[in-house]
Each structure stands twice: as C-alpha cells, then as structure tokens.
Amino acid sequence: MISIPLPLFLTLCxxxxxxxxxxxxxxxxxxxxxxxxxxxxxxxxxxxVALRFAYQxxxxxxxxxxxxxxxxxxxYLGFVTLSDHSDVLARTVLKHLxxxxxxxxxxxxxxxTRIALDLMIGLSYAAYAILLMRLxxxxxxxxxxxxxxxxPKMRRLMLLGIMLLAITCVMDAVIAVDFAxxxxxxxxxxxxxxxxxxxxxxxxxxxxxxxxxxxSAHPGAPQTDDSAAILRQAEEFxxxxxxxxxxxxxxxxxxxxxxxxxxxxxxxxxRQTGTNVSQFINGFRVRQAAQLLRDTKDPVGIIGExxxxxxxxxxxxxxxxxxxxxxGAYRKG
Length: 333
Description:
Blueprint lengths: L5 H17 L6 H26 L6 H6 L1 H13 L8 H21 L4 H24 L13 H32 L4 H24 L16 H15 L9 H8 L3 H12 L3 H19 L4 H7 L5 H12 L3 H6 L1
Helix pairs in contact: 1-2, 1-8, 2-4, 4-5, 4-6, 4-7, 6-7, 7-8, 9-11, 10-11, 12-13, 12-14
C-alpha cells in the first residue's frame, strides 16, 4: 500500500483548480459559486474515499455515498450559468439541486440498500454527462455570457467535465461489481487506475484554466473607452459569427460576447451610428435579407425568419427603414 493514497492527490488537484477558478476575473460570479462548490464536494469526497479504502475507516461510508449526487448538478449548473439558459437559472437551480437533495435524503435514510444506491449514483453521473453533452453540442453561441475569446477554453473544459462524469460512472460501476462478486478484493487496484485517470483529467483542466493570466483583461476587448474600436469589434464579430440570425440576441448577450459592458456597447453604437443596439443588429438582419431576396426565390416570410426576425411586421418595418421600400418591392426592382 502506498503511503499517500492516490485519492489524496486528487484532493490536491481539486484544491488547485478551485484556487484558479477564484482568481479568473473573466468568469462570472454565479459560475464561480457552482464550480467552487463542486471543487469542495470533490475534495471532501476524495478524502473520504482515501479514509475508507486506504485506512479502512468505515464510519465515513454514509457521507461518502451522499456526495456523488451533488457532483453532476453543480458541474452542470456552473456551465448553465454561462449559457443562454441563464434567464431561467433560478428555476433550473431549484430543480437540479432539489433532486440532489432528495436523493441524498433517501440515501441517508436507507444506507443499507447498496445496489439501489449504486444504481442511482451511476444514473446521476450518466444523466448529467448527457445534459452537458447536449449543451456542448449546441455550439459556441450557447455560452452567451462569456466573452468570445474565452468560449473555446470553456468548451474544452466542458468536454473534460463530461469525461469526468463518464470515468467516475465507470469507476463506480466496476467497484460495485467487484463488491458483488469478490467482496471488494480489487477495490484498491481499481481506485488506483481510476484515480490516475482523474488526475490526468484534472491536470488538463488546470492547464486550460491557468493559460489565462489571473488579472488580464478580456482578450480582444478594447483597452480604452474607444467607441469606434468597440463598434468595429461588434461589426467584425457579427459578420463572422452570424449571431444576428438568432432572434433572441440581446444587448447584454452581445456585450458579454465582446467582453465589454452593456453601457459601453450601447454608447458606442449610439455615438458612431446614431441608432440603438436593436436597430444596429437589425441592420445586419436586413442586409442578410436583402441578399437572400436577390439570390434566392424563397418566400419573403421565410427570408425574414432566416435573417433573425421574430415577426413579419418587424421585418417589414426594419426593411422599410433601411431601404425605403418593402421586401417585395426590393425584390421586383
């Protein structure tokens, strides 16, 4: 038996990750709260695993079986806070943490039903791995509350989070089978392999988080209150990302993708164009619609929807404002 159990190295890795999370200024406070809570749960869980399996302290068993129910929800909620679903965050938090609390309560009340508990834990890991994968598959624009420069990094971390849940799910399943068939004879060896895999995973996560200096400004964001620079940045981003085709695009969402404040973006657009942000975004939509009117034979209503307009009336009003004629007249001319 090694003198320092591998799960304790996981505790140290988690502690380092927590410190890095706390010192990243570009990460929203809500996301920090969930991620740091997750790190705390992982630290306590790995310590309890070490006490139980390396030092045979069985008194920690009940608490050790409660904590896994919180890992998936906290990881998922951390990313949801950064996503376009953050407008329903309070309801989402109540739902997912409520389920974790209910499962923890059941586990504390009937700890002797080991097979059922192992099954519930495994299903929890699997369910949240699927939820995170669905969020990841939504593309970079789903992380709408992050400055665009940090989105690739967080998407890589999301994949690492999915791998964390998958590896832990497999570890729990294999250990449960070993207890059922061999009375846990191979648990120490299995924990060593699993811990090495998780340590490698945490090392990758620490690397990606640490790549951004703790006190750096948002990469790509204007370093001064230069309204012309902010406007150029907004125009380039919208042109490249085509995010204006999303009818739910808002001032706040665009500002956060650019790494500037709502007020700075609004002021820049107003000073440089004489319009508000809504009209500025609609300008991109109208130009997209005009190109589709010229290049395709699609119905006018379909073109309005494809360009990001929620309603036909808004499409016609904005098109008339920019081109001085209706979409139908523009196509005929």
